Amino acid sequence: MGMQDEEYMRQLSLGIDSAFDILVFRYHKPLFGYVYRLLNDEKLAEDIVQETFLKIYQQGQKGFIPDQFKPWMYKIATNTCKDYWRKPVSRLEYVTDKDLKAKEQVYQIIDHQLERQWMVESLNKLSMDYRTVLYLRFYQDLKYTEIALALDISINTVKTRIARGLKQLGNILAEDERKGVEENK
């Protein structure tokens, strides 16, 4: 296990630019994967990743060292993406036990199908709020606490959005499957 990300930020704040290269090397690929899935546009994703790293670099030069680098980095990236989206109106959200049961089933589907194109297409039918939490959870492997930090929402909201997002995703997948069956008759 090498040095922690926060330690590289500390070095950057001391003017050691090579520390920044290591962060870019470490996170360029996962960050690009995340942003690309959100925006579905390679060129734009690359621009946003560059912009995210630029902001990280500038913050480091000012001497800012985040408590947890990863959530902070995803927060910057998500906010940079948000400039390109129209913000959906989020309503109050509640979760029921039934939602949680449905969630377990969809979890298993997601785990097996993460890299499939149809999975990404289905996820992209969800609202931005649901999409971001699901991508951060399943593709970037962030913990609930890290997602809460990255998106500036409470852990409860994270859990609710994941449950709701998975429920909607389940409906979309079921709908697509039903259509598929009808087309193959």
UniProtKB/TrEMBL annotation:
Keywords: DNA-binding, Sigma factor, Transcription, Transcription regulation
GO terms assigned for molecular function: DNA binding; sigma factor activity
Pfam families assigned: Sigma70_r2 (PF04542), Sigma70_r4_2 (PF08281)
Signal peptide range: none
RNA polymerase sigma-70 region domain mapped to chain residues: 24-87
SUPFAM superfamilies linked to this entry: Sigma2 domain of RNA polymerase sigma factors (SSF88946), Sigma3 and sigma4 domains of RNA polymerase sigma factors (SSF88659)
BP GO terms, sorted: DNA-templated transcription initiation
Superkingdom of this protein's organism: Bacteria
All copies of domain RNA polymerase sigma factor 70 region 4 type, residue ranges: 117-169
Protein family per UniProt: Belongs to the sigma-70 factor family. ECF subfamily.
Record's protein name: RNA polymerase sigma factor
Record organism: Virgibacillus pantothenticus
